[in-house]
Amino acid sequence: MSEKVSPLRQPTAPASAAALVHEVAGLIVAALNLDLAPADIDADAPLYGEGLGLDSIDILEIALVVSKQYGVQLRADSEENERIFGSLRRLADYITAHRTK
Amino acid sequence: MPILATQFLADLTRVAQLLGAGAHVLNACADRYHFTVGLAASLVSGKLSLLPSTHTPEVIRQLTAFAPDVICLTDEVDCDIDLPRVPFPGAAAAGSASPAPVPAIDTAQLAACVFTSGSTGTPVPHRKSWGRLIACVREEANRLGLSGSTCAIVATVPPQHMYGFESSVLLALGCGHALCAERPFYPADIAAVLCAVPRPRILVSTPIHLRALLESGTALPPADLIVSSTAPLTPQLAAEVEQRFNTRLLEIYGSTETGQISARRPTHTPEWRLWPGVTLSVRDGETWAQGGHIEQPTRLCDVLEMTGEETFLLHGRVADLVNIAGKRSSLAYLNQQLNCIPGVLDGAFFHFDDSRASHAGVARVAACVVAPQLDAARVVQELRRRIDPAFLPRPLLLVARLPRTSTGKLPQEALRSLAAAHLQSGGIA
Q: ipTM above 0.90?
């Protein structure tokens, strides 16, 4: 939780981008109890609306998981936000750039 | 930057001139200030604001049938609502606002029309007069303890939803409070917006947002009151909200048809106390609400137990009702939409309260569908055009036939068993 998050702390050694994509897919499937395997999520398909078909309740849930796991607090007013949920890969890229744990 | 009443009056005059000759406005503005200007502009021009709960193509088609002259007031650049659109105008030059009088609105004037899903597939309109809407939120202000102070209202719910409409837009307009234009979504946004407005300040929210806020680890700014509605909070979450914000949490209970009718402080009592003048009566096992600001006697879609003249306990929803994050529908309506899809031979939604269908305390619905020529993705794609995404089935299972009884009835329990067996086998049931 918050007390473990420090901007001074070095991020853990960066795993490969593909590994993070897989890890985030696993978090999404677990958090939302989706009826599919993490590898079944197309890394480049939209998460919202068409594609994986998530709605805003799911997006809030993913934001919560991402904040707990990586210390990334998503903000609607950040410029990239439009694109963050454009696909699993973009979400993973965003986490890589902003993670604090 | 604060917006003063003079600016508001100038803006509503400007927008009123753009609304054209028709009598109906779909106010789709996402910004709460824009929405409020649009509502006021509609009021002064004698137009009825239509507030459907969702804007799917099917709902817009039904809205056009209901009110052929409807136009859409929008502040979204990429708005894809298929109606004649009136874009919300850009800000007027600073200081250009000339003093305009505060308009007086007849209490009998119809101000808004909200919709519930009927069992036949046609939405049922509920028209609200200005006087009754305001009477309702003035009682809300009493119950929330806001009388005599001016508060800033931050809300995470849309202004088009009855709860958000009443507890942000009307509470501000009818009781002299200030409202915040933003609709913060992520926990960090909610905290930041709350922090940016002066105290006393109120957070109007839902169990889903409040839970996310507490669990996210975001630092919580002090608030002077937290209001929650759409679904009852668990006692644990209610206690934690009060503790972490160091303030009172009040819950509101109402419905689209009746508006708000009762409130409680869940850390003090499980009992809801009705607004004065509103009474409940039980007829043939159904609970009806009437009196006070309620336009006409209305059947409630929840199971209630009266504990006194003005108090009751809430025991859950009527079996047919679906309530997901404050969005309401009925199994009958969802089934009707599902069975309209070309290629669907038979299909039924059901409450599937196992872990696959629910997370974050949000119980979703599932569906079994007989559609030999279609795949599940195609059926979901068709449903997306017709119903709000919150009601899309999780999961949607393609089956060979539905477990109908010899009289054609379809017990929910039989559907749940079929789905459980189907998921276990991983194949066609």
A: no
